[in-house]
Amino acid sequence: MKTTDAISPDHINNFDFLRLLFATLVLVTHSYVLAGLPEQDTLWHFSHGQLLLSKLGVRGFFVISGFLILKSLMRSRSITEYCFKRIIRVFPALWIMVGITLVGGYFFSSKSVGAYFTDHSVPLYLLNLVLRLHISINGVFPNNPDPYEVNGSLWTVPYEVFFYLLLTPLFFIRHRLYVVRGLVLAGFMGLLVLHYTGQVFYSTYKLSLYSDQLIFLGLHFMAGALLALFPAVLRQARVRTILVWTTGLGLVAVLYFGGFYQTQFLLVPVFVLALGTSSYPWLNWLHRYGDISYGVYIWGWPVQQALVHGLHPSQPVLALLSIPTVWALGWASWHLVEKQALRLKLDIVAPAAATTRVVASDFTRLRQAVVKQA
After folding, report:
1. Hey, what long-range contacts does 261-270 have (CB within 8 A, 24 or more apart)?
2. pLDDT tens digits, 178-200
3. 63 and 93 Cβ atoms separated by less than 8 Å
């Protein structure tokens, strides 16, 4: 396996491949549910009920997100810049998807035009624009095994944005690297204690958030952020390769023989980030086509529901039909919406960025700042 020797801003990595893989794993599991079958995919059987493909995909997404978003926060020049980058990455594609599925839902409903657009569930569905989740519209997909649900995949997006906001205060102490490391480590350990000492529930559901999911997803996000703060762990290509093989084989072993619950917060983050920060030519060629994973993720459920409504396919057929269809929509979402929105970031950032091109990595600036203060 050929890899580059260091992680740098110009390093072509495997993250695009991993994100697309994780989004596709979610599609596969959802094809069981939406076809009316128990949520028992191939990984569920292999792991004797320990893990689903979709849950592996979501875990991977949050690990990568924690890693990359922490790095983005550290190199941002202001809170405004950081928040703007996060907004234009999440919301434009989401808004387009909500608008199209709202209007398109009529064609898969049992109602007249007037009855459909005046139903009380329609304005509630529009609240997805501001991350107040309402995934159903009355009368849409009425005969599907999972009726009325237009997009059940959206539940993770508010958690993602919540964790973006949770990291924001670190911006003000970003030059004190040891403090940032301590706080992120303390946060990870605190969540770990809460997770393993029993389910903890608080009244967070009004925010479209549930405390048990905040803890569980937060552990993966914080694990990614923590590894971002110790770049030396993943800097050398040989070390990354060793970590990919050891943690990969470890995951296979604990999934088949048992023990995944006890080891997941170590094995999954290290495996995902060791593989993601590596650069294997047989994986990283996907970067040429853009990062289509977000579009695949948010379009997967409605496309599969539409296919079930029109064709009533079996689970394997639903998966085979939906994957290329949703990949195409993800490609369109990236090139027509997401990439165009990100150009706003580039237009704003470019003038100031010219003065920072000599920086070799995100954390080099942190070290330089600490040295200057000393």
Report:
1. 261/50, 264/59, 265/192, 265/219, 265/220, 265/223, 268/56, 268/59, 268/60, 268/63, 268/220, 268/223, 269/63, 269/220, 269/223, 269/224, 269/227, 270/227, 270/243
2. 999 999 999 999 999 988 887 66
3. no
Provide the token pair at 117: 């657009």
Label residues 11-23 b or e (16+ Cβ within 10 Å = b).
eebbbbbbbbbbb
Q: What's residue 179's pLDDT?
A: 96
What is the signed CA dihedral for 24, 30, 34, 36, rounded to 10 degrees? 130
* Per-run averaged pLDDT (10 residues), the chain, 374 residues: 38 90 97 95 96 97 97 94 95 97 95 94 95 93 94 95 96 94 96 83 66 93 96 92 97 97 95 95 86 97 97 97 97 96 72 42 47 41
- Provide, for the chain, the percentages of residues in helix, strand and coil under a 3-state DSSP scheme, each rounded to the nearest 5: 75, 0, 25
The pLDDT, as a whole number, for residue 289 is 87
Cα distances from 104 to residues 117, 158, 164, 177, 280, in angstroms, run 11, 24, 31, 49, 40
- What are the phi and psi torsion angles at 136 (to 5°)? -115, 150
Q: What DSSP string describes 142-158?
A: TTSSSTTBS-GGGGGHH
Q: How far is the C-alpha of 133 from the C-alpha of 238, rounded, in Å?
A: 44
The tens digit of pLDDT for each residue in 54-102 reads 999 999 999 999 999 999 999 999 999 999 999 999 999 999 999 999 9
Contacts of 202 (CB under 8 A, 6+ apart): 211
Q: How far is Cα 122 from Cα 158, in angstroms, rounded to an integer?
A: 20
Assigned token pair, 174: 């970003």
Q: How many CB atoms lie within 10 A of CB 26?
A: 24
Give me 26's structure tokens.
Answer: 């979610």
Of residues 267, 335, 329, the one with CA closest to residue 304: 329
User: In angstroms, rounded to a whole number, what is the distance separating the alpha carbons of residues 23 and 57?
Assistant: 6
3-class DSSP state of 229? coil
